[in-house]
Amino acid sequence: MGFLEELKALVPGRVLTKEAELAPYESDALTAYRRRPLAVVLPERKEEVVAVVRLCHRHGVPFVARGSGTSLSGGSLPVEGGIVLALNRMNRILRLDPKARVAVVEPGVVNLEVSKQAAPFGLLYAPDPSSQPVSTIGGNVAFNSGGAHCLKYGMTANHVLGLEIVTPQGEVVRLGGEGLEGVGPDLHGFFVGTEGLLGVALEITLRLLPRPEAYHTLLAAYDSLERAGEAVSLVIRAGLLPGAMEIMDRLSIEAAEKAVRAGYPQAEALLIVELEGPKEEVAEEARVLHGVIRESGAYEVRVARSEAERQAIWKGRKAAFSAVGRLSPDYIVQDGVVPRSRLGEALREIGRLSQVYGLRVANVFHAGDGNLHPLVLYDGKRPGELERAEELAGEILRLCVRLGGSLTGEHGIGVEKKAYMPEMFAPEDLLAMERVKAALDPKGLANRGKVLPEEVHA
Amino acid sequence: MLRPTTPQEVQEAVLTHPRLRPRGAGTKPALSSPKEGEALLDLSGLRGILEYEPEEFVFTALAGTPLGEIEAALKAHGQYLPFDPPLLGKGATLGGTVAAGLSGPMRHRYGGVRDFILGVRFVDGEGRLVRGGGKVVKNAAGFPFHRLMVGSLGAFGVMVELSFKVFPRPRATRTLRATMKGLEEALRAVEKLRLLPLDLLALDLLPPATLELRLGGFPESLKARLERLKALLGQEEGLEEVEEVAEEEAHWQAVRDLRFLEGSPIHAKVPAGLARIPFLEGLPLGPRRYLDGGEVLYVGLEEEGLKALKEAGIPYLTLKGPGEALHPPPENAFYLGLKEALDPTGRFPGRPSPG
């Protein structure tokens, strides 16, 4: 029997090979890249995933695990001649234990679903990437997804307590456990963020947190982006630790207004700050916050007086991303990180680059943790514009590294940014990653062609 | 003894010794005492804060830097290490804390050492200086070698430099001690408190029936929160007494230095959890305290107690005492692959057992 026949025997009726069936899996949210896989497999149980990985290993066929395909870095781009393990059908929450404050889930469970199921117990799953109504926990684990609350609560890695994985050689291994602290090396912490290069997560144990008692959400309007950035520094200097701090520039504000009519004030920049905690504590923090915002030069300040008003403030922010996308036929989004105190400098430089390249750049970002999200707008039908946009995006990445930050805060390296890895990491660092990859996946089958640059022996 | 003072000297030491045992201040002798054939690599000369930007909530220090030095620098800017590393008062170093994977009572509020480490530079088994992670609070680039170091007991390399996230220090702190009728009532109270958004800094259980709850925040709001907490505890069945702990700062300092273990020959950390506590409480354990709502046990033991843990199949890490510190030793394919990649000749601890 050939590979495909064996595959079909392992997962009967759930192997897609026809051109029309494969088309939706050819790319993810990074639509500029496209590859036709040999087949797409739709496992429903972890035993099937293990069997398929073993088969791939035996035949030397590359495989890419995929959730909802929301990767913005091309993380789930198929490999030609390889297969896609589409894990959406493995979407069961296997156990939700409020006493232990954990949820054990399959990789295809949608992020938001965990918090929904935890809500009746007064609990939540903290990581909240903007894709959370769609993206899956398996994908979040692979890419160490973030969201708006990372400064205070950390990223996905901080909320994963244990994993069952299948290694690229087909061995099933349990990493971590169910408690907040184990003994021995933090292998599950290491697995999170390795972008599927070291195996496929089969079961994931997540930490749940009590939902905050009270929120205080404020929206401040500024006449320049830099002023809004400076306000963030003032908040931090005042000794506050908000749950979230977000900034939108004029282009994003206008786009969000058009898309969802959030009712935002006209401004060059909007800052959202959200405090959360016990009500007495939030009240004290709010007093300090309002003093700081008054001094920061905001010309209009709104405070959410109800949950509905709070949701209205967030509505525009959450919609901003896709709304900006609609301003232009095409866009590239980056998610580089800069030290918070260099935000003003980074934004000024992005503005300058935008002019030099003659391309519009919209900025919506997680200001609390210095995580930028410049959207480079372009029209792919105009000759040369894609290349110019990519070049501009590359300049922004280099800028982030130069200022002491990172190539990516939450989207991952994928295929999109791997060529920039040598900008951030020395050859020795990259070789260590390669050696780890080679030891765990000697045939190089798991998510081949991602993260590691082609040439590190510079 | 080898006592490097620069990362380059660490590289040389690694390349010239087939078996090494790194040590910071030696506050966890079960982990840092050389076994037969191992050269002691004393990292206390690799000391000092390299970068600290209070406004970034980030610092970078050499691995042998004593925690006390770091805490003092942070305190001057109204910040602290939220994972509350133990043994600070005994001279413990940053690197040793990461290698052992230890966090103190205040881990309850924001998480443990794994939640605050941002980056590392380490020397691998072939003498290469490797960096993982970064110096910003959010970062998803490359393999996260920094997280691999937590609890690694030095298995994958010698840490030379570490970057951490820090937070603003609570402006004031207060502590309540509640005495319950028995273990069952105490566990029920802990279970309930864990589910509430009280933002406690610490929630410790001293078996059989005492809880210690620490609050931090604005002095004005703390008063009201303390009253609310008392009222909440007052509703608990089996509550016998609630009192506020005087000199609470000094009290927690002693807890954090694990002084309650001092009379015991063996000191161990045991992953616990509410479901496992009733069983653990049936074992012959010495002085002890469960941190973080019952999640982590620090316990003083005699030989008999350690044997009981082992026989019951309960994982543990000894900080002081004879024998293998980590039980069970990690032997899965993922661990072995990483060990093979980063320490192929087995220079460092955590070598796979033969066969």
How would the global form of chain B be characterised? globular
Radius of gyration of chain A: 22 Å
Distance between the termini of chain A: 43 Å
Query: What's the pLDDT, averaged over the residues of chain B?
Result: 97
- Name the beta content range of chain B: 25-35%
Q: What is the CATH third-level topology name of the largest domain in chain B? A: Uridine Diphospho-n-acetylenolpyruvylglucosamine Reductase, domain 3
Largest interface: A-B, 97 and 85 residues
CATH architecture assignment name of the largest domain in chain B: 2-Layer Sandwich
Name of the CATH class of the largest domain in chain B? Alpha Beta
**Overall domain count of chain A:** 4
How many beta strands in the DSSP annotation of chain A?
18
Mean pLDDT of chain A: 95
Query: How would you sum up the major sheet of chain B?
Result: 5 strands, antiparallel
Molecular shape of chain A: globular
Which regions of chain A contain 5 or more consecutive residues with pLDDT less than 50? none
Describe the structure.
The complex is a heterodimer of chains A (458) and B (355). Chain A is an alpha+beta fold. Chain A folds into four domains: 3-86, 2-Layer Sandwich (Uridine Diphospho-n-acetylenolpyruvylglucosamine Reductase, domain 2); 94-210, Uridine Diphospho-n-acetylenolpyruvylglucosamine Reductase, domain 3; 212-320, 2-Layer Sandwich (Alpha-Beta Plaits); 328-444, Alpha-Beta Plaits (2-Layer Sandwich), CATH 3.30.70.2740. Chain A contains 16 helices and 18 strands. The two termini of chain A are 43 Å apart. The model of chain A has no long low-confidence stretch (mean pLDDT 95). Chain B has twelve helices and 18 strands. In chain B, the strands form five sheets. Chain B has a five-stranded antiparallel sheet with strand order 3-4-8-6-7. Chain B has a five-stranded antiparallel sheet with strand order 15-16-14-17-18. A four-stranded antiparallel sheet of chain B has the order 11-12-10-13. Chains A and B meet through helix 6, strand 9, helix 8, helix 9 and helix 11 of A and strand 7, helix 6, strand 9, helix 8 and strand 14 of B.
